[in-house]
Amino acid sequence: MSSALSWHHDGATICTMAVALSTAGEQFEGGELQVRDREGDMELLHTVEDLRRGDVVTWRGWDLHRVRPLRSGRRQVVVAEWWLGPNCSETDE
Predict the structure, then answer these.
(1) What global pTM score does this model have?
(2) How many Å apart are CA 27 and CA 9, to the nearest integer?
(3) How far is the C-alpha of 44 from the C-alpha of 54, rounded, in Å?
(4) d(Cα 53, Cα 20) in Å, to the nearest integer?
(5) How would you class 66 by CB atoms within 10 Å of its CB: exposed for 0-12, middle for 13-18, buried for 19 or more?
């Protein structure tokens, strides 16, 4: 089982949230969350690498994002997505 997720978006979700259940540098190494963003013509790359247990990270579901491979340990998170309505799906973008 791979510890990484390649670049993807979460379809038509309004917001995605990840809650850290473990702490970087203590329970795991690596596993950084990266989110791509645009500011005008410039592409930005936001990297979250120092998550501590209880930290919450949110991003827009349509932004491309990935999780880098773990180098050691076990990274645990709970992820939740918020959707616009009952008929919302990836094809509704």
Answers:
(1) 0.82
(2) 27
(3) 26
(4) 5
(5) middle
